[in-house]
Amino acid sequence: MTQQATSRREQNKLDTRRAIAQAALDLARKHGMGNFTAEQIAEQANVSRRTFFNYFHSAEDALIVSTESFLDQAVAEFAARPKDEPLLDAMIATLSATTKVENLQDCGDLFRMAAGNPDLLGTHLLAWERAEARIISAVEERLNGQASLLYIHALVGSVLSCAKAAMREWAAGEDTDAETLESHIVTALSMLRDGFSHPTL
């Protein structure tokens, strides 16, 4: 098999995986969690039930692709920021990037859905844990031995806690568009950067 054929095959696999994940998200938005089956996801994605289970173990696994995609993009964006940029400024700039708005909306919607579904919540938290490990590695590489592991772990943990707090606030509010969620996250991270020195209402 030629390299071109292999690349095309891998791209087809990625396209199929994305189509299944999008079908799962569309059904979750339309019917709510727990109100659709793997068979319905497969039908929506125009694939067989067997194909669905070749890619995912459950509907929750398919749904979490959007969160993983957003977090993967955020990690890549952070790694590409200028090395002399202050860490928190780099993280704020990463999450402010307008190219992330679509995935951010999906991530926020799934965060809201997970609050009422233990299975999805567990999968969702696992995706964040994997992202945390990747962010820690990116920060370690960026600092190149100039900070302790405690500093790095505490910093990354604080950043992710702020992001989750912003998502909870957003999910409980009336304005549930991506721009509002982005604003909440940036505001929370700005509070962290400024040492929470200016309480807001």
UniProtKB/TrEMBL annotation:
Start and end residues of each HTH tetR-type domain: 14-74
SUPFAM superfamilies according to UniProt: Homeodomain-like
Keyword annotations of the record: DNA-binding
Pfam families assigned: TetR_C_14, TetR_N
Segments passing through the bilayer: none
Entries under InterPro entries matching the protein: Homeodomain-like_sf, HTH-type_TetR-like_transc_reg, HTH_TetR, MftR_C
GO molecular function (one): transcription cis-regulatory region binding
Chain residues forming the annotated DNA-binding region: 37-56
PANTHER family named in the record: HTH-TYPE TRANSCRIPTIONAL REGULATOR PKSA, HTH-TYPE TRANSCRIPTIONAL REGULATOR RUTR
UniProt-recorded name of the protein: AcrR family transcriptional regulator
